[in-house]
Each structure stands twice: as structure tokens, then as C-alpha cells.
Amino acid sequence: MIVVVSHAGDAHATAVVDRLASWGREAYLLDYGRFGRDLTLTLDHGDPGRPAVRVADAAGVTDLTDATAVWWRRPQLVDVGAVLDDDARGFAYGEWHAALGGLHELLACPWMNPPPLDAAASHKPTQLAVARELGLRVPATLMTSDPAEARAFVDRVGVGSTVYKIFAATERVWRETRRLHPADLAQLDAVRLAPVIFQELVPARADLRVTVVGERLFPMEIDTTGTGADVDFRLHLARARTSAADLPDDVADRLRALMKRFGLVYGAVDLRLTPEGEHVFLEVNPAGEFLFAEHGADLPITEAVAGWLAAPG
């Protein structure tokens, strides 16, 4: 059995599960958001040979013990809303966190991606440091909660040449990368409340989304010329011109080295291609979306993900 940690509304998980089913491979969609509601978890150490991992709902019991691969795709928060007392709710969530950590260890099979490595690789400060160390160009960047530091960076780079963005999006809070405007300078004191990423705006001939699955790279070029999206291609992706792209061998090798350094099997890398033809690293998302790249550039990414899960390595 292949386990996919996500939820029923995740089109990426559904596409991969359906592809696996078409190959006759059993996949179980494990939604952590159902724990505390209609799904139970059992970690059974009664057999001295090997601990068992079981989940159960109204449809019956599913044994996950012999899972052959796990895709850490879109884990949801356990639902502890039925616990009304704040202290008890925190306690319940902590107990679930500990139990699920044990589940991760007991499913002793290849993971795409191992949760601890996935979490570490999600840290943008580390990403930029590693990318630079491996020879990739990264933009001038400042991550700060100090208004004075922020103003000094903006003075150095220039107001119109500075963008700002968040460290991590959530399902409830998402913000695109934005260009800093003169009117925003009055708001810089607000960075005391939460750190902000400030970065030089890299002029681009095109953006690149490179989806990495194991050793395979699937690059898509995104040309947003004339769409008004010179900062964040996601805002006008439907109007952009997209196509499969080629990467220079040295850039491809460095991206593979980046993935190996972080221990990732899957990652969605964002690059900017400058007018001079230089590839600039922006970030890697260990659980980034790929269907838009598959459709926009006719890239077989669903097949690659399902293929790795069916035969890891």
C-alpha cells in the first residue's frame, strides 16, 4: 500500500492516487484533519515482532503497517475543536503531535519527503544560504523585524527595486510577492510585529518553475510580458505564455545538489531568467503545486510522482 498524506480536496493528491489506481496500485489518502472527528489511530505494540499502524473509520480498519511509500503532500491539522477548554485543547494537540511523530517513525519505508527534512528545507533563510554555497545566484535579501534595518536595505536597493514577501503561507493567509512603493515606507515600523523578507527585484526575461522528482527535472518557462505581473507570475498565470524549457547543465546539477543537501525527493523550484540569460534562485517549495506546470507545458509530472511512489528510488 502507498500512503498519501493530504485531504480529499487536494487535486494533486487525487491525480496521483487515480494514476496509481490505473496501474493497479493501492493508495490510501490519509487525512490528518479527520483525526479527532471520524478517523482513529492505533499504534499497536502487542506483537513483539513489529509494531502495527492502523486507522479506522465507519468504513472499517485500514492497516498501514506494510506501507511501501509515503507521500508527505498536504498534511492537515488534527481537529481538536471538540475540546472546549484552552489548556485541554493544547494538551490534546500535543498528544496528537507525539502520536503522529511515532506514526512517522513506524512507517519505515521511503518518504516523499521525510517530514523532518521537509520542514527544515522549508526555511527560506537556509534555502538561500545553501543555494549560494552551491553556486547559484540569489538576490540581495534582508529578513528582519528591525525597521531601521529595513529602511537601510530599501535605501541601498531603491524603493522601486525592492520587493517584499512572507516566510510561509497558510491555508487562511496567503500574500503574493509585492513591489515596495513610496507609500509603503510609512508602514515599515510594522515589521516589529512579524519579520518580513525584503529582496532586490531581479529583472526577468521569464520566470521558471522547475519541478523536481527524484533525479528528474521538469522545467517550465513562464513569460508574463504584457500581463502586468513583473513581480509574481502567480497573479496572472492564466494570461502568461508557458512552455517547456531547457536548463543549462550546470544549473540542473546545482538544483539536484540542492535537493540532495536537503534530503528532498520532491520540490518545486522558482528561478528568474534575467535578460542576460542568468538563472537566479528564488526558493524551493518541498510541497509546491505542479498541475499548472503539467498542463501549461505538457510535462508528465503526475506520472513521475506516481512512478516514484510505486517504485521508490
Automatic annotation (TrEMBL):
Gene3D superfamilies: ATP-grasp fold, B domain. Signal peptide: none annotated. One of its GO terms (molecular function) is ribosomal S6-glutamic acid ligase activity. One of its GO terms (biological process) is SOS response. Residues 1-114 form the MvdD-like pre-ATP grasp domain. It comes from the Bacteria. GO terms for cellular component: cytoplasm. It holds the Pfam family ATPgraspMvdD. PANTHER family: BETA-CITRYLGLUTAMATE SYNTHASE B-RELATED, RIBOSOMAL PROTEIN S6 MODIFICATION PROTEIN. This is MvdD-like pre-ATP grasp domain-containing protein. It comes from Cellulomonas pakistanensis.
